Amino acid sequence: MTVARELDTQESICQDVIFPPGDLYSDEPPLETELHLEQIMLLLKCLKWLWRDRNDFYAAGNLTIYYSPRQLKSEYFRGPDFFVVLGTQRKTRKSWVVWEEDGKYPNFILEILSQSTANTDKDLKKQIYQDTFRTPDYFWFDPFTQEFAGFHLVDGEYQPLQMNEQGHLWSHQLGLHLGIYDGLLRFFTADGQLVPTPEETAERLAAKLRELNIDPDTV
C-alpha cells in the first residue's frame, strides 16, 4: 500500500469514528429562546438570593448531569433546564458528575417546555427522573402557553401536585411554592409571599425609605 493510499484510509476511518468526550464542561445545546434563558436566570437569581447564607446546596441551569454506572461521560447523561441538589457543597462546577458527588442526584428538577422538547420532557425525561434519578420533585413550565405542572415522588412513582387557591404548587424539597407571576415562573414562600430578586429587594427598601421621607440615594 502506498503512503498516500494509507493516509487516505486512515482519514476515512477517523471520519467514521466518534470519539468519546473527555473532560467536558457540559453537553447541553444553546437554549431555544431568549425567554428560556430569562426564566432560568430568574429562578437562579431568586433562589441564590433567598439562600445567600446557606452553603449546603447547588443550583444550576442548562448543565449536564453525568450518571453512567461505568463512570463514563460518553454515556448516560441528561441536562435539566434547572435543578437543585441539597446537602452538598455550594461551589462552582463544570457539570454535575454523580459518581464524583457521593452518588447524589437532584432533589428538584424543572424543565422549560418548548414545541421541540415537550414530548420528551413529559415522557422520557419524566421516566428517567422518576426511575433512575429518584428526584423527589419534578416540575415543568411553558413560558409561551403558561402550561404548568408539578409532581412529587410517592412510593417510587410521580404523583401530580394540586394547585392551591393562588394557583401555586408546593415543592416539598425546596420548602417553597412555585407559581406564575408576570408570565414567568417564580418562587413563593410558604405563606404566599413572592421571593424577590436582589433588585426587587433594593426597590422595596427604597420605597420604604421614601415613605419615611428619607432619600434612598443619600443613605
Automatic annotation (TrEMBL):
| A Pfam family the protein falls into | Uma2
Q: Which UniProt keywords apply?
A: Endonuclease, Hydrolase, Nuclease
List, alphabetically, the SUPFAM superfamilies matched: Restriction endonuclease-like
Give start and end of each Putative restriction endonuclease domain: 22-180
Q: Does the keyword Hydrolase apply?
A: yes
Q: Which CDD domains does UniProt cross-reference here?
A: DUF820-like
Any keyword Hydrolase?
Answer: yes
Q: Which GO terms describe its molecular function?
A: endonuclease activity
Q: InterPro entries under this entry? A: Nuclease_put_TT1808 (IPR012296), Restrct_endonuc-II-like (IPR011335), Uma2 (IPR008538)
Instruction: Please state what the protein is called.
Output: Uma2 family endonuclease
Q: Which organism is it from?
A: Halotia branconii CENA392
